[in-house]
Amino acid sequence: MNTDPIADYLTRVRNAIKANHRVVEIPASNLKKEITKVLFEKGYIANYKFEDNGPQGSIKVALKYHPITKISAIRSIARISKPGLRKYAGMDTMPRVLNGLGIAILSTSKGVMTDKEARAQNVGGEVLCYVY
């Protein structure tokens, strides 16, 4: 039993990038699927596929690299809100990652979204991770 599945998700992606893997397979959950969709929409991953094998299913994430320099699109991916210490951000205290160049993924009452989308919809929530 994993105590922090989101940290496990981020660590699997981080390790796959360091090992220059093209695809990483991660056990699925609804929150992980939503985080994957946000990463795809913002251009940090090349593609993804949800597979329903077994009771839980899995997510196959195709990582994105620069064609010439082979540098990953994800430079850093870090967990912010942990099970031992939750981090919440209101509309006025919304974090800016790398002065707006990166994204913060939030879990809000209107679903999982980036910090910019949350500001536009005037909602706050739990800050899950920073990606740049």
From TrEMBL:
Keywords: Ribonucleoprotein, Ribosomal protein, RNA-binding, rRNA-binding. The keyword GTP-binding does not apply. One of its GO terms (biological process) is translation. GO terms for molecular function: rRNA binding; structural constituent of ribosome. Transmembrane segments: none annotated. SUPFAM superfamilies: Ribosomal protein S8. It holds the Pfam family Ribosomal_S8. The keyword Transmembrane does not apply. One of its GO terms (cellular component) is cytoplasm. One of the primary rRNA binding proteins, it binds directly to 16S rRNA central domain where it helps coordinate assembly of the platform of the 30S subunit. Belongs to the universal ribosomal protein uS8 family. Part of the 30S ribosomal subunit. Contacts proteins S5 and S12. This is Small ribosomal subunit protein uS8. It comes from Mucilaginibacter terrigena. The gene is rpsH.
